[in-house]
Amino acid sequence: MSVTPLDIIKKQFKSSRKGFDEDEVRAFLNDVRETLVELLNENQRLREMIARRDNEINQLKGEESSIKDTLVLARRLTEDLERKARRESDLIVGEARLEAQKILMATADERRNLQAEIVHLQSMKARFVAEMHALLSAHAHMLQNHKDESSQSA
Predict the structure, then answer these.
(1) Rounded CA gap, 21 and 25, in Å?
(2) Cβ-proximal residues to 14 (8 Å cutoff; 6+ apart), any chain
(3) Among 123, 101, 124, 104, which Cα is nearest to 112's?
(4) Which range, of 4-8, 90-94, 142-146, averages the lowest pLDDT?
(5) Within 10 A of 68 (CB to CB), how many other CB atoms are there?
């Protein structure tokens, strides 16, 4: 039988010549003792359960903290990698621009050299044409003289 605090307050023992009936008091005290034992056992069980839950909560808080630290570290690593990638890409782009400028300068130098060679070849052509013209004129003049001399001798 479970005893409640109200049962204890309302409990009336029968009177006997020595006072209350000893068997009734013992029976009641036995019920109170059993109820208290049950309550103490339940209380102990609940305390143990609370302690386990508190341990689990502390463990989860530790894991949460570890996860947060890991996330912060991952975020920092990601930012570092992004900065490094930007620096590397800027360096690659800079090197590519420098190489492009070198190629453009080499191409411009080659173009100037080719233009100078073209001018030189054009002047050689003009000189060659003038020399050929002079040679052909001289041969034509010699042929004409030879023709005139042949016609005078005949």
Answers:
(1) 6
(2) 20, 21, 24
(3) 104
(4) 4-8
(5) 10
Q: What is the pLDDT of residues 57-69, one digit of tens each?
A: 999 999 999 999 9
* Tokens linked to 52: 């386990």
- What is the DSSP-derived secondary structure letter of residue 4? -
Contacts of 88 (CB under 8 A, 6+ apart): none
Encoded amino acid at 26, one letter: R
Give the pLDDT score at 71: 96
Give the tens place of pLDDT for each residue, 112-140.
999 999 999 999 999 999 999 999 999 99
d(CA 78, CA 84): 10
What tokens does 58 get?
């502390």
The per-residue pLDDT for 32 is: 84
User: Could you give the 3-state DSSP secondary structure of residue 133?
Assistant: helix
Separation of alpha carbons 97 and 93, rounded Å: 6
